[in-house]
Amino acid sequence: MNEILSERSKGVLTLTLNRPAKMNAINTAMYAELVSQLRSAAQDSEIRAILILAEGPHFTAGNDIYDFLENPPTNMEADGFQFILELHNFPKPLIVVVQGSVVGIGTTMLLHCDVVLATPSSVFSLPFVTLGLVPEAGSSYLFPQLVGYQRAAEILLTGKSFTVVEAQEMGLVGTIAEDAREQGLAIAEMIASQPPTAVTNTKALLKSGAHHAVTEVIKAEGALFQMALHSDEARDALMKFAMRRGKK
């Protein structure tokens, strides 16, 4: 089964996480395919916007922990880190629709998307510290900038989840709707119908103030993340988390 589905229509490339039996937990092969699709779309003049979706009741449970432990990232060339950098540098609009569990990378990737929609079932969590790790995807910079230091610190240091209503109030989610997928596609198609150079230039301007700073933070987080991942503290925490998830 193809774990990343792709479809092109009306200038929109729709990428869908398609591993619902595993709550769309993202493994190395899925990261590699996402990177390939984003790189190709960045160079394809026919693609004007990207829409990211997920099959099943959950957007993603985050990284596939067993795959993560068997294939730990050893440098910034690892597919997971490359996916983060591709999102950060992607020149065209990124629209995403989430539902159910939105864990780890599922939440941090939203900080790089231009339009975020969610269904009322969505619940978000950033359990990096709980897993003996550190934040990634520039979230240690972008999340406090978005929600304020105190709120970001509480969420990141406790690993506690937060609701879709809280996510909207923070500015992480723009729209909450039962028909979020339909609305997301309509927005993506509307953006795709706009003059493309004006769209990409406007996105570049919107992101320009913090782009370099976020790049440096991503690199720093990546180095600390790799160090933490190889620690006994993280491996024990990850295995305990995986066993708890397996019992559900």
Overview of the molecule:
The structure is a single chain. The protein has 248 residues and is an alpha/beta fold. The chain is 50% helix and 15% strand. The chain has eleven helices and nine strands. The strands form two sheets. A six-stranded mixed β-sheet has the order 1-2-3-4-6-9, with helices on both faces. A three-stranded mixed β-sheet has the order 5-7-8. The two termini are 24 Å apart. The model has no long low-confidence stretch (mean pLDDT 93).
Please give the largest β-sheet: 6 strands, mixed
- The proportion of strand residues reads 5-15%
Uncertain residue ranges: none
* Rough outline: globular
CATH-assigned homologous superfamily: 2-enoyl-CoA Hydratase, Chain A, domain 1
Q: Which strand order spans the largest sheet, edge to edge or round the barrel?
A: 1-2-3-4-6-9
Oligomer: single chain
Mean pLDDT: 93
What is the CATH first-level class name?
Alpha Beta
Run of helices and strands: EEHEHHEEHEEHHEHEHHHH
CATH architecture: Alpha-Beta Complex
The number of helical runs is 11
End-to-end separation in angstroms reads 24 Å
How many structural domains? Answer: 1
Which fold name fills CATH's third level, the topology?
Answer: 2-enoyl-CoA Hydratase, Chain A, domain 1
Fraction of residues in helices? 40-55%
Task: Kindly state the number of beta strands.
Answer: 9
Structural class by sheet pairing and helices:
alpha/beta
